Amino acid sequence: MRRALSWLTLTGVLAVVLGAAVPARASELVMFERRGCAYCLQFDRDVAPIYQKTEEGRRAPLRRVDLSGGVPADVALAGPVRFTPTFVLVDEGREIGRITGYASDEAFWGLLGALTQQGAPNRP
What we know:
Elements: H1 2-21, E1 28-33, H2 38-46, H3 48-51, H4 55-59, E2 62-66, E3 86-91, E4 94-100, H5 105-119
Parallel strand pairs: 1-2
Antiparallel strand pairs: 1-3, 3-4
């Protein structure tokens, strides 16, 4: 009986360790944009060059979508996207929250921080 318990304990520990080694499907930040969008261009100058180097960028890589092409089939939105840019935080294909518009890099980082803390999964 004791040997069976030791084996079960070892099996459980290995399952946890191996499970942790498999990366979970990451969140992503989907940016809906349109050609000629002045605020999208401002985002491109202010934030885009550094986004992937940040903690937020590692947790939720940026995916750009041209709104005129529609919503990707693998993204379930809570509502329609009407303005560009609109940044939609998505986890496993479902919208967690969004930022509509772009005013400045300070506003963007503040809103993204609030968005990720209100309900986004905390994944590496």
